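[SOLVED] Predicted holo structure with copper (II) ion

Edit: marking solved, answer below. Original request kept for reference. I posted the sequence and ligand SMILES and asked for the 3D complex as structure tokens.
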Amino acid sequence: MIFPRLRITHYAVFLALVFTLVACGGGRAGYSAEQQTVNGITIKLEHPQQLALLQQYELFVTLTGADGRPIDGATVFMAQDMPAMPMNSNQPIGEPLGNGQYRITGVFSMDGDWRLVIHARVAGQEYAATFNQSVTPAQ
Ligand SMILES: [Cu+2]
């Protein structure tokens, strides 16, 4: 009668593992997710909680329509700006990942508070949402 007990133990370990994975699956580690709805289209941005200077980061945009469906085939780009001063900054384009997701690779040339404007062109219409991102000074 040792056999069934062993199996139950293994099953419990397996279950604990599954719950751990589910708990971690709620979002990307080290990222915060924010979203805004603009004229019926929801623009969600997952961006790193902490950014350091002059390193490449991946940001993820998810577009959802008013019907709750993911929007593919959009043109997405990010405009980076600092509210405190005029900045010359690049405007990286979102790479489509499917399922309404787009990956943007960004670099921040200065520490401080940035404003990220996510632009999405969907079926000839322009949508934009603004998010804040702080960049920590180099050590
Ligand atoms: Cu600046």
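OP edit: The mean pLDDT is 85. Thanks to everyone who chimed in.
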